[in-house]
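dumping this here so i dont lose it
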């Protein structure tokens, strides 16, 4: 994160805006948070969940299991609320044992790079099952509305999707692709491929989302058959005045990355964890 959200960026004395104790440290000192962690996930284009001091992994799994059981036995007169609760608790205990550490349910990558930012190494970018980029430095920032990629990486990314084209100036940071070309895109973090921009999306995406699936920002124009991709070329750190910013060749994993994923930030551990919701 860039630090604008409740001061939850990694704390460094040299970059701190206030002399007070960091927010998460204050919560832990007052026993209001067991761990100095926080997590974020976006449910759709408008709503999301921010958890301070914990994650929603257990609550999510419980809701998912309960929904599956109730749907499977819908209309069965022999099924009671107590029976459903027993089934839910049994399956939840198997998936998330009570004595298991909270961090076992995430894939982790260590924070590295510029101080004061949640930066890490993305081991790979996969398109339709092929690894087209590897070892890309990234910043996690939910405040950014796109996924930003440096020029060489952006070109390589779109060259791997058939029929793409760069938009003309002044929108030449954006690329368009055939809306019916549902590319399956996964980002490799913590040794796991996360289908954060899977072309097919969910049934809700099909009904309410933009044409082109989760990877799309929407159609270029009606009748064109082309959609604008959510991976946008960035030129940060390329100009002379930005050479020392540390942003050259850096990806920014913004809002599209957080959709459908649980992303947890461990302050003491200096790491970022990701899991699918």
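and the seq i came up w/
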């Amino acid at each position: 994160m860039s630090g604008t959200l409740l001061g939850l960026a990694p704390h460094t004395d040299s970059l701190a805006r206030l002399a007070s104790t960091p927010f998460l440290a204050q919560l832990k000192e007052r026993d209001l948070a067991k761990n100095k962690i926080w997590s974020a996930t976006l449910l759709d284009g408008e709503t999301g969940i921010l958890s301070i001091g914990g994650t929603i992994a257990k609550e999510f799994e419980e809701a998912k299991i309960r929904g599956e059981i109730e749907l499977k036995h819908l209309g069965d007169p022999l099924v009671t609320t107590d029976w459903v609760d027993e089934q839910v608790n049994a399956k939840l205990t198997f998936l998330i044992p009570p004595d298991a550490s909270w961090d076992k349910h995430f894939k982790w990558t260590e924070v590295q790079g510029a101080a004061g930012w949640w930066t890490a190494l993305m081991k790979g970018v996969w398109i339709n099952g092929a690894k087209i980029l590897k070892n890309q430095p990234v910043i996690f920032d939910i405040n950014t509305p796109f996924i930003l990629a440096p020029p060489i990486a952006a070109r390589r990314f779109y060259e791997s999707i058939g029929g793409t084209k760069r938009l003309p100036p002044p929108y030449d940071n954006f690329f368009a692709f055939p809306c019916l070309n549902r590319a399956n895109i996964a980002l490799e973090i913590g040794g796991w491929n996360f289908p954060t921009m899977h072309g097919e999306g969910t049934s809700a995406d099909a009904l309410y989302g933009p044409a082109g699936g989760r990877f799309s920002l929407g159609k270029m124009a009606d009748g064109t058959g082309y959609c604008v991709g959510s991976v946008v070329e960035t030129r940060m750190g390329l100009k002379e005045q930005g050479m020392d910013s540390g942003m050259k060749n850096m990806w920014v994993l913004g809002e599209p990355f957080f959709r459908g994923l649980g992303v947890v930030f461990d302050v003491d551990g200096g790491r970022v964890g990701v899991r699918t919701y």
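Residues 58-95 form one domain.
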